[in-house]
């Protein structure tokens, strides 16, 4: 087999609507598409860096430039060893860890001639994914709901002073199941309790990250009291975070861009099962590369929020399908993506 080669390109992806959450608002994102080839097959990965985790596109591309030789020496077949080396080399960039892990898994499965979900022991059937409605001017909510008309489950970003108005407008227009993500926006136990109690009567399925990750002791006070499941996102970053969330949260949201890829995501799945935590898989604003990679293990989850590629207007890749929130995995080898 030929020596490996790695190449990458920065892609600016634009969202259909400005994407606003409790701490930021963006209308474009720069992601880095990584390609690893063995001379015959190519594996694709994607880094969608997040400032919340001290990561950036510049950091990702600088690391790729400086450590090219180390990357092409990584083992294709041994994911555990590879991941240990990736974490040692790229400790500062979770998104680059994810991009490399994905590209290697894609290449590995292509070498085997199998879809990656088969290699990982996952099923093709998985839960329906939600579609995210960001925080917006109240008069933008209706157009966003119209855009989301075919999706049966919506994820609503709250955690701003406008929570009541936003929910009010949404409930004027739809009675769909809602999942609420406060993105650390509620700052006291009293405020969180008031909000959760109010949301429990409005066909809300669960609450994601109600309070700042730093306030884990406060969040623990919601665990036994809460009428709705509480799911960790900013508190559920890496596999080592999971045991400490038992008795604090009811579930965890796994994202490849936080945990460092599929190898670590599978570790988080096993740890969550051991500690009786429910499983959710989420994403950043990402192209079909990262979403197709995540969907490979979607069948292990109770809840899916893999909508990054349908929120963007200029996806450079075609991969997993999304029909009204139902993700359709391809039977092509690897993660099943190709350039549009
Ligand atoms: Mg979240």
Detail the topology: elements first, then pairings.
Blueprint: E1 5-21, E2 24-37, E3 42-47, H1 57-66, H2 68-71, H3 79-89, H4 94-112, H5 116-119, E4 131-133, H6 138-147, E5 153-157, H7 163-173, E6 177-181, H8 189-200, E7 204-208, H9 216-223, E8 230-232, E9 251-254, H10 256-259, H11 262-274, E10 278-281, H12 288-295, E11 303-304, E12 317-318, E13 321-323, E14 326-328, E15 338-339
Parallel strand pairs: 4-5, 5-6, 6-7, 7-8, 8-9, 9-10, 10-11
Antiparallel strand pairs: 1-2, 2-3, 12-15, 13-14
Helix pairs in contact: 3-4, 6-7
Bound molecules: magnesium ion.
Give a structural overview:
The mean pLDDT is 96. This protein is α/β, with parallel strands linked by helices and 340 residues long. The longest helix has 19 residues. α3 runs antiparallel to α4 and α6 crosses α7. It has two domains: 109 residues, Enolase-like, domain 1 (2-Layer Sandwich), CATH 3.30.390; 222 residues, TIM Barrel, CATH 3.20.20.120. The strands form four sheets. It has an eight-stranded parallel beta sheet with strand order 4-5-6-7-8-9-10-11. The chain has a three-stranded antiparallel beta sheet with strand order 1-2-3, sandwiched between helices. Bound molecules: magnesium ion. Magnesium ion binds next to loops.
């Amino acid at each position: 087999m030929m020596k490996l080669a790695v190449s990458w390109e920065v892609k600016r992806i634009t969202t259909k609507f400005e994407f606003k959450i409790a701490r930021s608002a963006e209308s474009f994102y720069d992601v880095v598409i990584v390609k690893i080839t063995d001379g015959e097959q190519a594996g694709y990965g994607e880094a969608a860096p997040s400032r919340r985790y001290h990561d950036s596109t510049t950091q990702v591309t600088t690391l790729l430039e400086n450590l090219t030789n180390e990357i092409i020496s990584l083992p294709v077949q041994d994911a555990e060893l590879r991941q240990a080396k990736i974490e040692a080399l790229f400790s500062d960039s979770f998104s680059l860890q994810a991009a490399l892990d994905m590209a290697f898994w894609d290449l590995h499965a292509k070498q085997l001639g199998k879809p990656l979900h088969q290699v990982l022991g996952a099923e093709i059937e998985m839960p329906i994914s939600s579609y995210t409605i960001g925080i917006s001017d109240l008069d933008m909510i209706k157009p966003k709901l119209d855009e989301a008309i075919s999706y049966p489950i919506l994820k609503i970003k709250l955690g701003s002073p406008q929570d009541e108005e936003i929910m009010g407008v949404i409930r004027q227009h739809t009675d769909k199941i809602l999942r609420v993500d406060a993105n650390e926006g509620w700052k006291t136990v009293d405020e969180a309790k008031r909000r959760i109690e109010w949301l429990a009567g409005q066909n809300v399925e669960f609450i994601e990250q109600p309070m700042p990750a730093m306030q884990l002791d406060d969040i623990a006070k919601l665990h036994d009291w809460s009428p709705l499941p509480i799911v960790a996102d900013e508190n559920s970053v890496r596999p080592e975070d999971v045991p400490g969330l038992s008795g604090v949260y009811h579930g965890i949201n796994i994202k490849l861009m936080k945990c460092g890829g599929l190898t670590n995501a599978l570790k988080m799945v096993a740890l969550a099962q051991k500690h009786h935590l429910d499983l959710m898989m989420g994403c950043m604003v990402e192209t079909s590369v990262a979403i197709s990679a995540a969907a490979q293990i979607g069948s292990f989850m109770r809840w899916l929020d893999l909508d990054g590629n349908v929120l963007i207007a200029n996806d450079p890749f075609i991969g997993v399908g999304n029909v009204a929130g139902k993700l359709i995995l391809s039977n092509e080898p690897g993660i099943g993506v190709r350039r549009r």
